[in-house]
Amino acid sequence: MRLTAKNLPARSVKEKVRKSELAFSDKAGNTRVMPHPTIYLLWDASHIWGLMAWRALTALGLSIRLSKGQEIAYGLLLGKSEQTGPKLIIVPGGNARAKARALGSRGLSAIRQCIAQGGNYLGFCGGAGLALSGENALGLCSWSRKPYPDRLQHLASGHVLARLAKNELCPESLQSHDISLPIWWPGRFSANADKTIEILASARKRDSDFWLGDLALASIPNECFSIWQEEYGLDLSSDFLTNMPLVISGQYGNGRYLLSYSHLETPESPDANTWLSHLIGELTGIKLTHTRIPAWDLDKQESLWPKNDHTQPLYEALSITRKLLDLGVDQHLFFRRTPWLWGWRTGLPGAALNALHTSLSGLLAQAPTACAQKAWDRVRSEFMRTLQLFAAGAEESLLTSRITGVLGGLLPHAIRHRDLKERQLAIFGCPRNGGGLVGEMLKVTEELIYLSQPGINPQADPGFGTH
After folding, report:
1. Are residue 85 and residue 198 in the same domain, yes or no?
2. Residues 187 and 259 in one domain
3. Residues 308 and 268 in one domain
4. Which pLDDT score is estimated for 412?
5. Domain count along the chain
6. Helix (H, G, I), strand (E, B), or coil: what is residue 73?
7. Cα–Cα distance measured from residue 273 to residue 293, given in angstroms and rounded to the nearest whole number
8. 467 lies in a domain?
9. Could you give phi then psi for residue 256, rounded to 5 degrees?
10. Side-chain-facing half-sphere of 89: CA atoms under 13 Å
11. What is the reported pLDDT for 25?
């Protein structure tokens, strides 16, 4: 089912790149044709973050080309005359190592060449990590990724109060006071002596909706943090945020990179959205009239895929996934964090279910192209088999997790934790690296979203849905 560069001869991939012309429909149904788009968004290994970035950028009025690593490897970014400004490559959040694998050495080299020749790179979270120095990374920036001394600190999410630098890349209206910026389980930068790198934003302290794992810190009395530290050696405060660089920028050859561990594309985050709009203008020369990204309410999304027997497995998958999330809420395993995100208790497969739910919702909200429909024809039967296995095991796995929590202090050996974890991995995959039955369904839905772009060559992906 998986499409890789190995499935395609170099000639067919180059032909695909030559023929592709993106036409993106806006909310009013108008179509704007961009034979040579200046904004490319790396689609591989992005999951919910790729959808969120795509949605945000189109809400700002931009035409975006969803791009895959194999296309970049075979010349998507090269040899085109740009008349609307320099090329901009946007890499959303997600697993940086998986993105590097999708690009391969050839794709990584192509991005470096594009930026060195005057292009711009904007990376969020995992996309920021991809651009740092280290093994299987782009090395656009000499800084590297710094591990957290406490794994719990990596589970930080919500908004933080930050201060911007006085820099042309930062809106003047936001430079004189603390602003609220969203982070979603970020990495962090490891600085060195390179003085060419500019820190554009640093965190100061947590904002009111800041969480560590499934702990809402604002609801915990301050004295509890001191007691936990003194009695148990547990530091559950947010002090680690103080002066932590969130956004940096620098030059690479004739181009520029901007790396952000803040998700500026988060819906309904006014300061972040204003800054993102400003950045796009600075990096591309495009003057944007919109500065706010509207709410992303998955309960109110309209479905544009036809609803019939042929597409029934997709709608059934969405229904099953939503019922699992609701079950998790009922059983105090999950909780509704935002209109687009469910929170989850640490150790549960919340990330996988969120990714699958948003991917299915995002797919069905797109008008299907002939290319996407043909691809669905090829993978429908296998998708149904995977869905049946998922439906048979996912509910039981969640409820077993609930029972394990209840019996933990009474009958600690009633359920073997190793067996439960193995079942969870088989169904939901690994939190960091994906996989499992959810991973198999995500391969399908994310490929169909990519193929739903008008202008994609229907013959471009012969490897999808074959064995």
Report:
1. yes
2. yes
3. no
4. 67
5. 2
6. helix
7. 6
8. no
9. -140, 150
10. 34
11. 33
Residue ending a domain, choose from 284, 315, 347:
284
Whole-model pTM: value is 0.89
**Distance separating alpha carbons of residues 452 and 443, to the nearest angstrom:** 14
Q: Residue 71 belongs to a domain with what CATH number? A: 3.40.50.880
Task: Give the residue from 214, 225, 244 showing the smallest Cα distance to 148.
Answer: 244
Pairing of strands 255-260, 120-124: parallel
Over residues 255-266, mean pLDDT: 98
The pLDDT assigned to 16 comes to 39
109-134 core/surface letters (b: 16 or more CB in 10 A; e: else): ebbbebbeeebbbbbbbbbbbbbbbb
346 vs 32: CA distance, rounded Å: 44
pLDDT surpasses 70 at 124: yes
DSSP single-letter state for residue 240 = G
CA proximity to 187, closest of 209, 155, 216, 214: 155
Reduce the DSSP state of residue 216 to 3 states and report it. Answer: strand
Q: What is the rounded CA–CA span in Å between residue 51 and residue 227?
A: 41
Instruction: Give me 354's structure tokens.
Output: 């969120």
- Cβ 69 vs Cβ 17: under 8 Å: no
Q: What does the pLDDT look like over 330-389, one tens digit per residue?
A: 999 999 999 999 999 988 999 999 999 999 999 999 999 999 999 999 999 999 999 999
Q: Which amino acid is at 99?
A: K
Same domain, 220 and 261: yes
Tokens 């800041």, residue located: 210
Q: Which domain holds residue 66?
A: 36-284
Let me know whether 311 and 272 are in one domain: no
Q: Is residue 256 part of a domain?
A: yes
Task: Examine the domain organization and report whether 221 and 91 are in the same domain.
Answer: yes
SS3 call for 166:
coil
Q: Is the Cβ–Cβ distance between 158 and 207 less than 8 Å?
A: yes
Task: Please tell me whether residues 153 and 278 are part of one structural domain.
Answer: yes
Residues 310 and 274 in one domain: no
pLDDT tens-digit map of 393-407: 999 999 999 988 777
- Phi and psi at residue 206, to the nearest 5°: -75, 150
- Tell me the β-bridge partners of 212: 156, 215
> 465 lies in a domain?
no
Residue 206 · residue 217 · CB < 8 Å: yes
On whether the CB atoms of residues 65 and 37 are closer than 8 A, the answer is yes
Residue 5 within a domain: no
Classified as helix, coil or strand, 426 is: helix
169 three-state secondary structure: coil
Of 204, 189, 214, the closest CA to residue 332 belongs to 214
Residue 456's pLDDT band (cuts 50, 70, 90): confident
C-alpha 38 chain-centroid distance: 21
Evaluate whether 351 touches 184 at the Cβ level (below 8 Å).
no
Please determine, for residue 173, whether its predicted confidence score (pLDDT) is greater than 90. yes
Rounded Cα distance between 86 and 118, Å, is: 7
Specify the amino acid at residue 7.
N
Number of H helices, E strands in the chain: 12, 17
